[in-house]
Amino acid sequence: MIKIELERVQDDFGFEATDAAGHVVRMDTSPDGGGKNFGVRPMQMLLMGLGGCAGIDVISILKKQRQPIEGFAMKIEGEREAGKEPSLWKTINLVFELKGNIDPIKGRKACELSMEKYCSVAETLRRSGTAISWDIRIV
What pTM did the predictor assign? Predict the structure, then answer.
């Protein structure tokens, strides 16, 4: 079981969430919603979690295949449902940016395995109806 503690630490909506290892993440709402830009919006954090989950998968797979990974980055864009409460993620697009002498077939397969099989965050979002697309660029 995973345990997280959350505490309001600044103004109305400035929260800090702490995991069992002591890692802290700050969250807030937008200034339009009464926040003060103290931290990340919770829905943005879901996109960050998706990126982290997929990144761990892809790098792990490529390392096992002895692919030389000199750099890794991702661009993630999402669109939320308009005019609904709650406003869920409607679409998310990820672009994996891999740097190194990586076999393009192995790079694409690693991303596909993450997105279709291993990434728990991606599957959680898909089960809520989110359409997830992705692409890969090797530099």
Answer: 0.93
